[in-house]
Amino acid sequence: MKLCILGPESKKDYHLRLIELSKYHFDKVLYAPLSGVRIEMEGEEFTPYYKSASLYTFDAVLPLIPKSLAHFGYAVVSLLEEQRIFTPISSSFISHASNPFLIAFINQKLGNADSPIKVYLSVSRDALNAILPKLNYPVKVHIPKTKRQQTSATFESESSLKSFLDTIELLAQPIILEEIKTSKSLKEMDVLVIGNRIFAVRRVGDKKRRCRASKHMQEFVLRMGKLLKTSIFQARMIVEKNSMFVKSLNVSPALSRFEDVFGNGMVEDLIAFLSKECEEFYRRHALLTFVDRLVEHLRTMGGRHLSKGDRENG
Questions:
Q1: pLDDT: is 309 or 97 the higher one?
Q2: Hey, which end of the chain has fewer CB within 10 Å, N or C?
Q3: CB 231 within 8 A of CB 195
Q4: How far apart are CA 109 and CA 84, in angstroms?
Q5: Nearest-angstrom CA–CA distance, 27 and 44
């Protein structure tokens, strides 16, 4: 089997280890920076290439997409899915991860009525004016990441929030307001999912600590993976006992953040899972193809017998 890893142009340590360890599971491994990939139109077909290599010639593609290239990454992975190339991170996940409004809607789709955070979404200051006096302060504001920086701040009053909104440029820029629930049990966690395995990390001061994922949290996170049709992903969540809120999704799982807590086996776990899932994917595909052909053959034979009988009766 052949593997292509789509990633950022500047590789980190875990990218290098992904490449090396993949060679023990795949016959050929190519690391292709997404910035070097192009899509060619050939007749009515679109084909993604890295240099002279068509990505359709690979059995598996692991997309570790830089957020700045998420829209292009979505297009590439969508094409791979259409050609039934195995990829453990879906185009649906990439689309949601790159759109803050879709991330907020995930909570609704997961039936998360008892969310620990109330959220408001807008693309302009004017659209928020009507609700500013009604908010329960403190309120946290997020201006999703741009090429320069990410703006995030907490405000204790309407006047301080208005002053902030007046001083920043908000042309067609998404704004997310969060009413913060005051609770000692409220936690912010980073969660990494590899298949059915869940790794949770919480930052306490300058330190990272592993967290135990409750049964309710495990069900919630795995349900999210099924909803987005992805088997490897990272999410940042706000958790309070059995209520939780998906705050952001990472299109390129930060394995080093989890390795600091769980050890260097994270890369090995990911590659071993990737290899196993790839084999199972093509095994299922071969079985479904066989069944489809068998059904089509039986339909054809049935049609032939019917035609012969009609002729005899005629």
A1: 97
A2: C
A3: yes
A4: 26
A5: 31
